[in-house]
């Protein structure tokens, strides 16, 4: 059974940093891509970042490029999202997800497993 468990969310002042973690189990993740998405109140869930498990190639939404960094630890089956220079508009529930694709997609329906989400709140 595939499980994705996020952690690391919290409350931070604008300009601060947080690191989210997503521990994955239940599939051979080296054959898959991983993504981070977020959903703010009243808004649709949106792509934030994605990583190809093999090679670690990353992709980012324009809104976070240069501020967020996604990485993975193969030995721990864990992906991370380092978030710097946080802004109030980054406030959302952040989800990690796994997709049976070689290249991470920006489309939600490409991902077949999701974590429960972790709340990130950035105050001004």
Description:
By secondary structure, this protein is an all-beta fold. The protein is built from no helices and eleven strands. Strand 5 and strand 6 (58-60) form a beta hairpin. The protein is globular, with a radius of gyration of 13 Å. The N and C termini lie far apart (40 Å).
Produce a short descriptive summary.
The protein has strands at residues 3-7, 10-13, 18-25, 33-39, 46-52, 58-60, 68-73, 78-83, 92-99, 113-114, 118-123. The chain has 124 residues and is mainly beta.
Task: Provide the descriptors you would attach to this structure in a database record.
single chain, 124 residues, mainly beta, seven-stranded mixed beta sheet, four-stranded antiparallel beta sheet, 0% helix, globular
Please write out the topology.
Blueprint: E1 3-7, E2 10-13, E3 18-25, E4 33-39, E5 46-52, E6 58-60, E7 68-73, E8 78-83, E9 92-99, E10 113-114, E11 118-123
Number of strands: 11
Order of helices and strands: EEEEEEEEEEE
User: What gap, in angstroms, lies between the N and C termini?
Assistant: 40 Å
> Beta fraction of the residues?
over 45%
Radius of gyration: 13 Å
User: What is the overall pLDDT average?
Assistant: 94
Low-confidence residue ranges: none
């Amino acid at each position: 059974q595939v499980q994705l468990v996020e952690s690391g969310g919290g409350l931070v002042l604008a300009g601060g940093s947080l690191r989210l973690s997503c521990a994955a189990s239940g599939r051979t993740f080296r054959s898959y891509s991983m993504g981070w998405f977020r959903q703010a109140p009243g808004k649709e869930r949106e792509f934030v970042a994605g990583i190809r498990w093999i090679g670690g190639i990353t992709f980012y939404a324009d809104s976070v490029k240069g501020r967020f960094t996604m990485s993975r630890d193969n030995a721990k089956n864990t992906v991370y999202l380092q978030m710097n220079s946080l802004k109030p508009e980054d406030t959302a529930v952040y989800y990690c997800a796994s997709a049976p694709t070689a290249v991470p997609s920006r489309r939600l329906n490409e991902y077949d497993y999701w974590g429960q989400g972790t709340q990130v709140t950035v105050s001004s």
